[in-house]
Amino acid sequence: MTRGHSIATVVLVVIAFLVIYPIFMLLFGSFKGGPPGQPAPFTLHGYATAYASRETYNVLFNTVWLSLVRVVLALFMGVFLAWVVTRTDTPKRSLLEALIWIQFFLPSLPLVMAWILLGSETGFLNQFLAKVFHLQNPVFDIFSYGGIIWVSTINWAAVIFILITPAFRGMDAALEESSRMAGANTLTTLRHITLPVLLPSILGATMLVFLRLLESFEIELFLGYGVGIYVYTTRIWWLLGITPADYPQALAMSMSFLAIVFFLIAIQWKLLAGKQFVTITGRGFATRPTKLGKWRYVTLGLVLLYFFIAVVLPLSVLALGTFMRIWGVYVADPYTLKNWARTLADERFLASLRNTMYVALGSATVGMILYSIISYIVVRSRYAGRKALDFVSWLPWGVPGLVLALGFMWAYVGGLPFLSSLFGTIWLLMLVFLVKGLPLGVRVMNGAMVQLGNELEESSRVLGASWTYTFRRILAPLISPAFVSAWIILFMLTIRDLVTVIFLYTPKSRLLSVILYEHWMAGEYESATVVGMILAAVAIVVSLVAREYGRRVSSL
Known about the structure:
24 helices; single chain; mainly alpha
């Protein structure tokens, strides 16, 4: 075995252990009758209890129908936004795309708190309508199914936009022009040409968002839990929060949830298997936008309206909320700077800020280096186990964040004894984010690696350069745009994540998302809004940096 193959084998073993071990321990724990790290008999009690309870089926039904409704609404909104920005002559399209990117990067927790300020019984919107129309009862109720659907839809529309924009932008405009020459109007062309041709990308984005909505946690916890609306994730969270915690039932539900997610992924593969929709050929490629005439100002207004509703309105209210003496209550002289002073001076906040930077920088940087090595082995080597490595690196894609957190908790508390010292440390949080980022990081780097010709490495080796030198001086500069882009996304996803660390942190390893969650659950809403505003500000800065970097790279 060559040295390169030995290194590849070590990488495969390490990645397989990091990914498969927590999932195996989750399965193992589902048959145990007690908490992790304590002796308990093997039993089917958890599965029997879970599936004998009517509540389990109610929760499953709630999870599915809520996810379906939200993904359909977000799909319509996201497809419209992508079409306007990439396929029409709407003015200021570059600016519109940058605005939607800001929404994509914004964490959901600050936005949820903002919508509570807007749509609660005493929220800004209900008070405004009551004064204008002399209403006695509130019009909006954010703590409801409608509130959950609304907040989720406007958030996930931006995700669908980001996922399908490259496909919309890459479609040959000649197809649409042929339709219009045959007498079809813009709407008919959109329905019968544009959308069917882009069906694989749209279907892939829809399935991805649907899977992520099935595991959604924060919005449902803040807007539904207090009024008795449960989904699968909040039900598992509740089972582990009661005294004593019901570990058998919670882990049994987690394994079932995992099975459902993998089943849906298999369906997605089946639907897309063998389907080819070629839009770029050797005959030439046109990207001319569709002319909308006077309607282009209507589409401009609609996209700006979306940005106002999704970003400007909630963030403005959230910023105002950070200065309120009593959150959500309007009294004489209602505003103060004490919330900011108290929060910024709180050692818990300062420690969580440091932890967040350490975890986000560490997991994104170490992760991307590791993902690049994995991608090189999978795409550019002849290593016999490269397909296995590719599959293992994809596996976390189908593991919901809450289930992954449970798996790591069981693995690093009730598993191998020498690993228990990692539990509750920022090192374990880095590790879980490194595992969670595997599918995204490796897939992004795969896309960059396949574009590099083999002659680049061959020429370097002919001149006597080592593999390390070749990778560092030739390959690394060429894949750096993909590396930096993925790094930015992983950094931001780490900062905003709560569900993945909800069972893994201790007072010494809190992150910003955790301290926000603790403030909220303790009724310290004023401090929670300050932390949320800081998270939102970081997200906006990161999104602008990402856009500027992308602009500069594309201009090279």
